[in-house]
């Protein structure tokens, strides 16, 4: 990795396999102790992560509470994630605030079954601004436009655009209000950062990004075009990239950040998936943030060889790497390409939740992290 790296993305090929977050923990320990890293960002709800960060940075609450409230997508059940928070809290206990490790989520509040409602993010942003500025909108006005939370979180809307409220007149009005509130936050930043604090302002901006991103995503859920699913994936990765950008800027004076997510969210090339018998493509968060950071962004993709009865064919990338003697290895893609004596094919995994690496795109990686067996 380049010494100029500000954001190191470590991808995993599938979720729910502890070998990869365990490997992430080992890498993060090394980066903290030897490379000056002071923060980690996970593919988890950016607002929920505030509870986990409060625990590791300030000792607020308990580890059990941080695990139950600080993660989305079921990641709070991961023993490796629990060990990560425990280690970060122990590291921070005897250190001053500017040296403490920080924990971030960089995903939006977007579960597989649908998106959260915008009320928490929008209300928090409104209240922050209302304490210091005269606003043309009251909380009562926002509540009237928002309506009930249930209409935003209706799981049927994920598959049926007609069930979404994202393009109703109230939702369209809320998008304008959220955009105006965020513009006020930006235009009054010099005053607000002095009247409150840089941390308070950063949290307000986090809620502003989340409110506008959620309203945009709900509008996408109401889209009836055949490109709807790919559009939603693109909106999600754009939210991820914006959050990573803000994290890197916040951490600029403290040290680089490690980001951990599925390979598909951190890679530099286009992400793709097959859904409802249709192919969908979109630019990943890694591709987007890479355009902003240039060589300050590095990406290491991870993959594995054997998983039970799923043994890779020798002519696949995973099969080729399985011939190496080491149980785990970090491979330079350039040296790998020079050593290849045949053209490799893409692996077709037995498990549909696992996305194999495409041998044709390894030139887009800065490193390949290989686990021989899981």
From TrEMBL:
Coiled-coil regions, chain positions: none
Pfam families (alphabetical): Erythro_esteras
Domain of life: Bacteria
UniProt cross-references to PANTHER family, sorted A to Z: ESTERASE, PUTATIVE (AFU_ORTHOLOGUE AFUA_1G05850)-RELATED
Name of the protein in question: Erythromycin esterase
Biological source species: Streptomyces albospinus
């Amino acid at each position: 990795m380049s010494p100029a790296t500000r954001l190191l993305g470590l991808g995993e090929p599938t979720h729910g396999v502890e070998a990869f977050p365990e490997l992430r923990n080992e890498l993060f320990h090394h980066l903290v102790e030897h490379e000056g890293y002071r923060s980690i960002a996970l593919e988890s709800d950016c607002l929920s992560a505030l509870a986990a960060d409060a625990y590791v940075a300030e000792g607020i609450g308990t580890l059990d509470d941080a695990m139950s409230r600080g993660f989305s997508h079921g990641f709070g059940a991961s023993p490796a994630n629990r060990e990560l928070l425990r280690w970060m809290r122990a590291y921070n206990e005897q250190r001053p605030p500017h040296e403490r490790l920080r924990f971030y989520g960089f995903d939006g509040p977007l579960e597989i079954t649908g998106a959260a409602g915008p009320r928490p993010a929008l209300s928090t942003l409104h209240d922050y601004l209302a304490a210091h500025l005269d606003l043309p909108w009251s909380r009562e006005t926002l509540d009237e436009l928002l309506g009930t939370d249930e209409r935003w979180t209706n799981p049927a809307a994920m598959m049926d655009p007609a069930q979404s409220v994202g393009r109703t007149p109230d939702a369209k009005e809320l998008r304008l209000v959220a955009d105006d509130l965020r513009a006020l936050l930006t235009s009054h930043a010099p005053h607000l950062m002095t009247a409150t604090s840089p941390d308070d302002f950063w949290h307000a901006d986090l809620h502003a990004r989340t409110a506008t991103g959620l309203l945009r995503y709900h509008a996408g859920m109401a889209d009836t075009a055949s490109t709807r699913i790919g559009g939603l994936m693109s909106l999600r990765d754009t939210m991820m990239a914006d959050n990573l950008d803000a994290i890197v800027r916040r951490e600029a004076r403290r040290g680089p950040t490690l980001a951990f997510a599925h390979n598909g969210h951190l890679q530099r090339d286009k992400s793709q998936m097959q859904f409802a018998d249709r192919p969908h493509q979109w630019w990943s968060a890694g591709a987007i943030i890479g355009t902003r950071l240039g060589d300050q962004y590095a990406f290491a993709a991870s993959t594995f060889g054997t998983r039970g009865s799923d043994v890779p064919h020798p002519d696949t990338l995973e099969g080729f790497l399985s011939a190496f003697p080491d149980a785990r290895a970090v491979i330079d893609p350039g040296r790998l390409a020079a050593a290849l004596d045949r053209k490799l094919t893409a692996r077709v995994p037995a498990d549909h939740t696992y996305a194999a690496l495409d041998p044709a795109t390894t030139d887009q990686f800065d490193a390949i992290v290989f686990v021989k067996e899981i």
